[in-house]
Amino acid sequence: MLNETNALLKSIKTTRPLIVNLTNYVTMDFVANGLLSLGASPVMCHAREEIEDLMKLAAVLVINLGTLGPDFISLCKKACTVANHLNVPIVLDPVGAGASQYRTDINLSLIETFKIAIIRGNASEIMALAKISETTKGVDSSIENTAVINPAKILSKQTNAAIVISGKTDIVIDDHLSIGLDRGSALMPSITGTGCLLTAIIAAFLALEKNRFEAAKLATLFYGICGEIAQKKSSGPGSFKTNFLDALSTFIERGDYERH
Amino acid sequence: MLNETNALLKSIKTTRPLIVNLTNYVTMDFVANGLLSLGASPVMCHAREEIEDLMKLAAVLVINLGTLGPDFISLCKKACTVANHLNVPIVLDPVGAGASQYRTDINLSLIETFKIAIIRGNASEIMALAKISETTKGVDSSIENTAVINPAKILSKQTNAAIVISGKTDIVIDDHLSIGLDRGSALMPSITGTGCLLTAIIAAFLALEKNRFEAAKLATLFYGICGEIAQKKSSGPGSFKTNFLDALSTFIERGDYERH
Amino acid sequence: MLNETNALLKSIKTTRPLIVNLTNYVTMDFVANGLLSLGASPVMCHAREEIEDLMKLAAVLVINLGTLGPDFISLCKKACTVANHLNVPIVLDPVGAGASQYRTDINLSLIETFKIAIIRGNASEIMALAKISETTKGVDSSIENTAVINPAKILSKQTNAAIVISGKTDIVIDDHLSIGLDRGSALMPSITGTGCLLTAIIAAFLALEKNRFEAAKLATLFYGICGEIAQKKSSGPGSFKTNFLDALSTFIERGDYERH
To answer: For a designed S-S bond to A207, which of A17, A51, A181, C3 qualifies (C-beta 3.0 to 4.6 A apart)?
Structure first.
């Protein structure tokens, strides 16, 4: 997978696909910087009035529901409508689904109404979308990823979307396909937005690799390896964030790919 | 105080208390990352609809009035109502009180209506809440901390809240108790959000240490020492921010505690 | 220009001019930290109710249209009205003008209604304001800076504003005056907000240097040199951002000024 990943990274840097993000206020700086590090071209959209113009230029639309509110939801629905109409693929990050009924309901409403290409969340969030109730503590996941594989497969079939479950082992599922990726760093959950940014990075890969399972798998693998590279140079969450953004701008070397 | 601080830090990392933040858009990334560095579990709340669900899980509620507006104020009032009802302690950051009459009025309205556990601000902000008029320049403090001790003691009695006054010497006051802490780094005011994050860190300490004076004192001490540790490794505000987030993830060593 | 730049930097650190920013949510943390690194005093304004109080204290008003919406536009218009009334100079960043008709129209409406001192954008944005149509991809510029010189001169005359065009060569124009500055780092476009922050840094220089062409020229020069200093120490976009904020806090040494 090393060569495929680097070939995709090169294509992203060359074509600079426009990734339109409707995303939360907490992590948008990190998401924008991560996409720029990768070589993609991010735009953060906030106004109904410009959705149609932006979507005509968009390679992929990212919907991240980290900071909700009636205006934002209405914006998301309009963007999804336009994206589906123009066949711009949508990648959804159901931040905090399960943490409040409100968040769960909004997310369910989106996946039932619109055609979504890829959904990426942690185990708690994916379980909530699969309508399997369990207690979530805030926006962190409190359950094992393995317990979510079967519900995620059902969710994938119901929604015709690929599902990425982030955790110690990342799992990528698409209908009957599934793969577990055991990469990454324990420092990743210690900075805010690593989930949000992975969602956006998957979107950037999807801009160049139309097979959504491949795109999700290679992006998740690349992301985990970047985490490992960054951890080696870091003495805490602050320096990890800096080094992680540096790593996202590079290609993967064989040593980093194999060392694990 | 070294052993108490490290014991509290350990408890925070083990129990990962959920700190619900209604906070400003400028510094929320820094606040979220600081709480994660510490080992606490932050959530940034923006929707009325999820306040009740989140508050049931919350250890502490942080209200930070850095970016105001009618919707945000209404959200704060709802959150404070629910928090008081559920006995979730509230920590208030009256950002920019005194800088505009609007900000002063909103803050006064909150402390007169709700039970607040701890208020943390700079001298100008605390003076404004104590209704002692003086000119504030923006969100920075322009007066000496010592002049604010007596007004702060009166404010503490009036509101039955502990008061933390940030500045060159940090002062923690609760009714008849008071302590001055002469720690920290001159680089702290050169990055945005060091005040906001201290407020949130105090909240995380309060989640585990129910004595609010102790919680505020140990959090403020820890924060100042982290500033000193970070400064030693930094060549400017950019690297200071990185190193400060690293320091927040560690325990305090005797050498760092005593060196001063 | 070395001595003039350092003299201005010293004045900024001494007087700490208050820069009031109506700016986008994506980069406001970076803009605030950049202004603090420089020694200026930033405040991010979001409420109609405090515009008059803040503007009385403001040295310069920065309007950045990165994240639009009806409330924000209304806020901008009120702030510009008060600023013009109080003779507080306005620096405008027309983020994404040309990327959507909506953004172009809002920006045109502002420059036609209010007295603006300096407009800073990339070539695409300036071309859009000069009403020369060309295709913009998102918020990045897709045209050469040289093609924009004549339209920018006309725009400068029409609006009686100085124009700064950011790009590989930065160009500063004011009526019949123009200068090209060939400084900076290729890493600058790889972090989000380098344009927004330059706009704010120009505002801080304008607070102390009333000649707007001089202020824009020296700020742009300083900014580019900081990029070069940061690049030498960086291994990617993450560390570049950190080192760039460090560089903004320093004075320019002769070696850094001449090395080019």
So the answer is: A17
Q: Counting beta carbons within 10 angstroms of the beta carbon of residue B160, is it exposed (0 to 12), middle (13 to 18) or buried (19 or more)? A: exposed
Q: Is the ipTM of this complex over 0.85?
A: yes
Establish if B191 touches chain C: CB-CB under 8 angstroms.
Answer: yes
Hey, is the C-beta of B26 within 8 angstroms of any chain A C-beta? no
pLDDT 10s digits, C138-153 = 454 545 566 889 999 9
Residues 53-92 of C with CB under 8 A from B: 53-54, 57, 71
pLDDT digit string, tens, across residues A195-228: 999 999 999 999 999 999 999 999 999 999 999 9
Of A26, A102, A239, the CB nearest to B47: A102
Averaged over B185-204, what is the pLDDT?
A: 97
Cβ(C136)–Cβ(C118) below 8 Å: no
Other chains touching B, judged by 3 or more CB pairs under 8 Å: A, C
In this structure, which amino acid lies at residue A44? M
- Range ranked top by mean pLDDT from A128-137, B202-211, B251-260: B202-211
Of C43, C243, C248, the CB nearest to B138: C43
C113 touching A, CB under 8 A? no
Q: What are the DSSP calls for C31-93, one per residue?
A: HHHHHHHHT-EEEE---GGGHHHHHHH-SEEEEE-SS--HHHHHHHHHHHHHHHHHT--EEEE
Does residue A25 belong to the interface with chain B, where contact is any CB pair within 8 Å? Answer: yes
From residue A160, how far is each of A216, B257, C61 by CA, in Å?
14, 57, 50
The C-alpha of C218 sits at a distance from chain A's nearest C-alpha, in angstroms, of: 27
The dihedral built from the CA positions of residue C56, C62, C67 and C69, taken in this order, carries a sign that is positive
- Best residue of A9, A24, A245 to probe chain C, by most C CBs closer than 10 Å: A245
A69 chain-B contacts, CB cut-off 8 A: 46-47
| Torsion-angle region of A211 (φ positive above 0: left; ψ -120 to 50: alpha; else: beta) | beta
Q: What is the overall mean pLDDT for chain B?
A: 92
Q: Does C195 touch chain A (CB under 8 A)?
A: no
Would the pLDDT of A98 be above 90?
no
Secondary structure string (H, E, C) spanning chain A: CHHHHHHHHHHHHHHCCEEEEECCCCCHHHHHHHHHHHCCEEEECCCHHHHHHHHHHCCEEEEECCCCCHHHHHHHHHHHHHHHHHCCCEEEECCCECCEHHHHHHHHHHHHHCCCCEEEEEHHHHHHHCCCCCCCECCECCCCCHHHHHHHHHHHHHHCCEEEEECCCEEEEECCEEEEECCCCCCHHHCCCHHHHHHHHHHHHHHHCCCHHHHHHHHHHHHHHHHHHHHHHCCCHHHHHHHHHHHHCCCCCHHHHHCC
Tell me whether C230 touches chain A (CB under 8 Å).
no
Per the CB < 8 Å rule, is B138 touching C247? no
Task: Give the closest of A30, A101, A236 to B249, CB-based.
Answer: A236
Residues B56 and B219 sit within 8 Å (Cβ to Cβ):
no
Q: Looking at the complex, does the CB of residue B28 fall below 8 Å from at least one CB of chain A?
A: yes
* Per-residue pLDDT reduced to its tens digit, C202-215: 999 999 999 999 99
Closest CB to B25 among A25, A30, A242:
A25
Q: Is B236 on the interface with C (CB under 8 A)?
A: yes
* Local structure of B244: helix, strand or coil: helix
A242 exposed, middle or buried (CB, 10 Å; 0-12, 13-18, 19+)?
buried
